[in-house]
Description:
Number of helices of chain B: 5
Order of helices and strands of chain A: HEEEEEEHEEHHHHHEEH
Number of strands of chain B: 8
Shape of chain B: globular
CATH topology of chain B: Jelly Rolls
Largest sheet of chain A: 4 strands, antiparallel
Low-confidence stretches of chain B: none
Mean pLDDT of chain A: 88
Oligomer: heterodimer
CATH architecture of chain B: Sandwich
Number of domains of chain A: 2
Strand order of the largest sheet of chain A: 1-8-3-6
Mean pLDDT of chain B: 88
Strand content of chain B: 15-25%
Shape of chain A: elongated
CATH superfamily of the largest domain in chain A: Jelly Rolls
Structural class of chain A: alpha+beta
Distance between the termini of chain A: 38 Å
CATH architecture of the largest domain in chain A: Sandwich
Largest interface: A-B, 32 and 34 residues
Radius of gyration of chain B: 16 Å
Radius of gyration of chain A: 19 Å
Strand order of the largest sheet of chain B: 1-8-3-6
CATH topology of the largest domain in chain A: Jelly Rolls
Low-confidence stretches of chain A: none
Largest sheet of chain B: 4 strands, antiparallel
Order of helices and strands of chain B: HHEEEEEEHEEHH
CATH class of the largest domain in chain A: Mainly Beta
CATH class of chain B: Mainly Beta
Helix content of chain B: 25-40%
Amino acid sequence: METPHHCQMCLSHQKSTFSDLSNDAKDELSRLKTCVSFRKGQVIIHEGARPQGVYCIHNGKVKLYTMGTEGKEQIIRFITNGELIGYRSLLSDEPISASATALEDTFACYIPKSSFFKVIEENPKFSLKLLKMSCHELGEAGKMITSLAQKNVKERLAEILLILRATFGEDEEGYLNISLTREEIANMVGTATESVIRLISELKKEGYISSKGKRIAVADRGALQQIANIFE
Amino acid sequence: MFRIVGFNTIQETLKALLPFNASNLLLEEIVMQSSFIQFHGVGECLFKKGDSPLGFYFILHGKAEILIPGTESIKLVSGQMGGLDAFLEEEKLLFDVISCSPHLESIFIDRRCYEFIIKQAPFKKFIDQSLLRYVGAYRQLLVPPQSMFL
């Protein structure tokens, strides 16, 4: 797969953070960006580094995570097509707060800092969009903290499965459109891999999910919502 | 400027810079576990004083310098590492490290990647030699020039 030279030709353009920019701004971005490809499992950015630009994901799936003191990963969230990586650290002039790794072969456009700030200065609507995105992420982080602190492991697992379904959707066979190891799911939930394996079996027995190898399908969304104490 | 930077490009650059013959498999794993970072412009910060030592930069192309107040800076070129000493000491960065060439390309190596690298004997030797070079560079700044004793 080739990453398109011009933002207008990008398949993720409609849902991209840059979709509302003027044509001139998109021309400028297209001229100054660098296209990069990442293999499945390759690290995109590291916690602690000082980035000099942002990545806009053209195609792929990325996990954002931090490393605990024991070297254990804590997955914070996922990044999909059209989303940005690294913009908050750039805006706050701080080191990157979470690492990002490609969950599958991923193609991204790297936009240097100078171009990114120029776009912000010249496009107030884009600035507002970034502000809304930051505020939304802050709200989600708050929910995650509450979830980790107050929900039990089964409730958190149910919630995570629903989040994965909402983020990645389902494939033709009804399985979640993301392949995660049990360890990665455990890192998201914040528990041991063995607990996740046991709970997935339990949810499967209760008929709320089905699984085939690493693939998981949500069979009863309502039941999972009840377990997770999520009200829509 | 529109420029494609692929996996193989980084791997080949790394291979050319290392002072020993690293296997392709090993290089591939390093590129997988490290993150590629480009700096555009002179004066861009690789590290600021006080940053946590979560990793260090291996310079692939371009130059950087360690800014030490009141004395000369220590220059870093391709094949050298920025922030290695603080990383190994697990102490916050004592000095700013900035780019001093218009274009700098590097890979950022975190603790997980480092643990993998030092299991390979030639790499461990290379890291040790780099550290000694660092010590030498700092010592140069402290020891007065030979001419003062004449």
